[in-house]
Design goal:
The chain is of the alpha+beta class. It has two helices and four strands. It is 23% helix and 21% strand. The protein starts with a helix and ends in a 13-residue tail after the last strand. Bound molecules: guanosine-5'-triphosphate and magnesium ion. Magnesium ion binds next to helix 2.
Length: 104
């Protein structure tokens, strides 16, 4: 790897090893936080491991709630990465299995 790539990797490693904070859950669009930082959202079918992936990336076991049953995540969950935050991760509900009522 070039020196520049090394530097980027090291910055990314530090960012994900540092503070990650749950910001809020948004049960509907009117509850979305202001778009203060770049957002990276995890979308996909229910139960494929979106919440688990978010925990693995940030090396924190219970940050995003996971479960064996599809449809665990029912709101948009926002997590700020870095202090001050650099990016915001969004754990989204999965599609395909959700039995929750559509409210938005
Ligand atoms: N074998 C295996 N199982 C995994 C992996 N990642 C997650 N799982 C399992 O897959 C199941 C669902 O994981 P979640 O992370 O809750 O899935 P999700 O995509 O967030 O699901 P919803 O919130 O319902 O959309 C859990 O039982 C996890 O333990 C993986 O890499 N390998
Ligand atoms: Mg989930």
């Amino acid at each position: 790897m070039s020196e520049e790539q090394d530097e980027h990797s090291e910055r990314a490693r530090k960012l994900f090893a540092g503070p990650v904070e749950f910001l809020k859950s948004a049960p509907g669009l009117k509850f979305l936080p202001d778009p203060d930082y770049p957002e990276i959202a995890f979308a996909g079918r229910s139960n494929v491991g979106k919440s688990s992936l978010l925990n693995a990336l940030t090396n924190r076991k219970g940050l995003a709630r996971t479960s064996n049953t599809p449809g665990r995540t029912q709101e948009l969950n926002f997590f700020d990465v870095g202090q001050p935050p650099q990016i915001r991760l969004v754990d989204m509900p999965g599609y395909g299995f959700a039995e929750a009522q559509r409210t938005w």
